[in-house]
User: What shape does this take?
Amino acid sequence: MNHRTGTLLAAILGSGVVFLDSTVVNVALQRIGQDLPSSYFGVLEGQSYVYNAYLLSLSALLILAGALADVYGRRRLFVLGLVGFGIASGLCGLAPNMETLILFRIVQGAAGAMLVPGSLALLTATFEGADRGRAFGLWAAMSAATVIAGPVVGGVLVETISWRAVFFLNVPLIAVALWAAWRYVQESSDPDASRSFDWLGAAVVALAVGGLSFGAIYGQQHDWKDAVGPIALALGAVATVVFVFLMAVGRHPLVPLGLFRSRNFAVTNLSTFLIYGALYVVGYQQSIFSQGTLLYSAAAAGFIGVPGALLLVLLSSRVGTLGARFGPRRFMAIGPALMGCGILWLVRLPASSPAWSLQPGNPSSWVPSSGYLLDFLPATLLFGLGLAVTVAPLTTALMASVPEARAGLGSAVNNAISRVGPQLAGAFIFVAITGAFYADLGSRVPGLDTTSPQIRQEVPPLNRPDPSVAPAVAAAARESSTDSFHLAMAIAAGLLLAGAAVNAIGIRDPKRTQT
Assistant: This one.
């Protein structure tokens, strides 16, 4: 194994465990809530914080970690992140109660912030030209594979061993990544970086990203019934404005605004905000709607996106090579457009689409229904194809748009946007579909007080109504949920098509040279 292969292995495993832990824990939350005592949190609230505490610390510290890597060494920060993530994972697996688990998840997310932008920075410093595009494609494919495999592997571990095994799974993966990083990865940094690090800027950007993310998440979880969510969003917005001002006047700014003078860097980050916002909306709303309204089983709902995700795994490396050879613009324009067309197919989904039947012990049930084949499969295949066409060229365009010395920072900024954008898009779309759902339900059931807290608790959007609800109201809620889902998918498709237009107009392919 040479240093390029070893670097690729370390980067894939290092970022892979971060993506893995954003999905694999989902299947363990129910058991965690049953097993762990808590003095301060209810079961549902504790489960929510176990999941979101990780995402919040990860998002808030991405830009700080990327900047530190450029200044003090990408290999050094990457190794430190691996060690921290491994220790935090082990402590999560040993947590005696809900409060300590949440604390260790915060530490885990902070360590993960060193790994995702660090992995792309290492690849940028190691590969060039078409080889770099191929490396980014492999990185994207393996990242997608971990997202696909995470819930499956996690489910097996939870059922056969314990939910604690979900966290211990990280340890051998990190051990291999540490070995590869220590033996094969070469140190790189920004030789012109100032050692006067902008700690004030780091604190303000953490407050900005964390406030926006926390406000969006908390507001959705509590149906925007109290002031905490809006206040957090407002603080995040103010901190964002202050951060831009500090970057404009500071002598050694954490994020030099000159980075955004690069047309491709600015355009890529804008399209990332739009595209990843749509990705979150589609995944979240589709999961709730398929189980809550269409009555799919959890396994059937989880399988919906697998065929499209497999296209991402199979095609990313090849598309990455082509994107590096011919330029990313056409791929970044066509890919989101294909994704948007796939999502538009879901706007025609009926309220009674029969599920893919999955009954353990009954082999004849393991066949797709006509509803799945006609309603979901065409959409997920087109969506997966578009995603495969988009991801690697977008990564290539991003990393080529910043000086190699600022690779860690450039990657961190884009990763932060890809995490904040979805939360904000999800929050605003949640408000839109909730309002649309209850307005439609009120028109279908005259005299029903849809502003009543009891009705809103018993008849939530996209979910199954409480069994005590009258059959006529439940039937109307099913139709209203379907219309609200159509609205969410139409908005998501609009975001994707806007991302395609932004890329088509704004991205510039590098000039091709002859040798």
Notes: The radius of gyration is 23 Å. Residues 355-369 have pLDDT under 50 and may be disordered.
